[in-house]
Amino acid sequence: MTIALKRPSDKQYVTWMGTKYGITVGQRESAGRMTVFESVVPAHQGPPIHVHHNEDEVIHVIEETYEFWLDGEITRIAPGHSIFLPRGVPHSFRVASDRDGRNVTILTPAGLEDFFLEAGNRQLQIPTDMPAVMELATRFGIEFKGPVDWAD
Fold first, then answer.
1. Taking phi first (over 0 means left), then psi (-120 to 50 degrees means alpha), and beta for anything else, what does residue 74 get?
2. Is 63 inside any structural domain?
3. Averaged over 125-129, what is the pLDDT?
4. CB contact set of 122 (below 8 Å; sequence gap of 6+)
5. pLDDT tens digits for range 54-101
6. Any idea what the CATH number is for the domain that residue 51 is in?
7. Domain that holds residue 130
8. Which SUPFAM superfamilies does UniProt cross-reference here (predicted)?
9. Residue 128 within any structural domain of the chain
10. Residue 35 located in a structural domain
11. What is the DSSP string of 93-136?
12. Residue 22, exposed/middle/buried by CB under 10 A (0-12, 13-18, 19+)?
């Protein structure tokens, strides 16, 4: 394996469900070991509850405060903090602010970046395109569980 350097201009960008993903390291650069991407998440938004069956995940919050739903518990994460999400644990998050949030995500092993690239390029939407989203998610070992009741 060789050292892989990616400049900001080399990132692969895709937008899915309002979140802009900038993929800096993927399976090709890491020989399948990890994926790293930066996300800009719209204010008060985030994914539905889901489970990664294949990857462990670390999310490092850069801007704004996030709320994480982890197997029924809600935890607030401030900028500069990171959270480890082991594979197999139902989770979700949202930006708990009136401004867009920014975070870096690290997934191991690599490969899930291709889910975001395909979902974004196909412009799939939840819940409108759920059969196609579920088919794609199944291919990547993701299980969607539904929306979070944030109780606000």
1. beta
2. yes
3. 95
4. 132, 136
5. 999 999 999 999 999 998 899 999 999 999 999 999 999 999 999 999
6. 2.60.120.10
7. 8-142
8. RmlC-like cupins
9. yes
10. yes
11. EEE-SSS-EEEEEEEESS-THHHHHHHHHTT--TTTTHHHHHHH
12. middle
